[in-house]
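Hey, resending since the last one bounced:
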Amino acid sequence: MPSPPATAEDIRAIERLHVRAWPALETADVDGWLWRRSGGGSNRANSVSTVRFNGRDPEAALNRIEARYRARGAPARVGTYELSEPPDLPQRLAARGYRNDETTVTMMKPVAPHAIPVDVAMTDAPDDGWREVYLGAITENRRVVNARILASIPRPCAFFAGLRNGHVISTGLGVADGGFAAIECMATRAEARRQGGAQAVLAAIEAWAAAQGVRILALQAVAANAAAIALYRGAGFAPVATNRFWVKA
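The structure tokens again:
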């Protein structure tokens, strides 16, 4: 039987959790929007989260966030998805000269309890082998910043390492909050791809999430990464939202 469709509240909860699960190094509240700045190349950690807006003048709020980024010598970046507030925010951004820099897909699946695969290690903090694989798989301009963010991941969380012959070949991170859990930091050594490491890590995160009382597991993947999206679909995840990161031209 197919799983029930995601509700708007589910999608909002998932978006809020992804903001919490990968905390920016510097934040500020701007009329309910969350201004974020970390440096490096991460869009999420360097853009405004727009899950909620409680101001009266979006244009004035955009002026304030742009001023904050200018003060840091950084381009203004804003993240939107289907439930961003206010609903016409993408049109406002386009009118101000923003362009869509990257698109990601939010995917989710209902959690089913099972045992953690025997070839996956779970730890409370990333060890050297985990860091080597994950940090080695991302761009150089993200490594220093992401290493700092890893030290501030909120709990409950757990780090997962897919193993082959005692060596880490795949990584993942699970962060739970109530009935939801987010998957972060999925990576696999280039020479170890298509060996089942990522699938085992996904299964381990789901098993851990079930033990935390989680009912929905979610992740965000770059829309252009067809291989990753196929992997997640094969593991039972379905797309439920589209995120766009806008940068001021």
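The chain has a mean pLDDT of 95.

Sorry for the duplicate.
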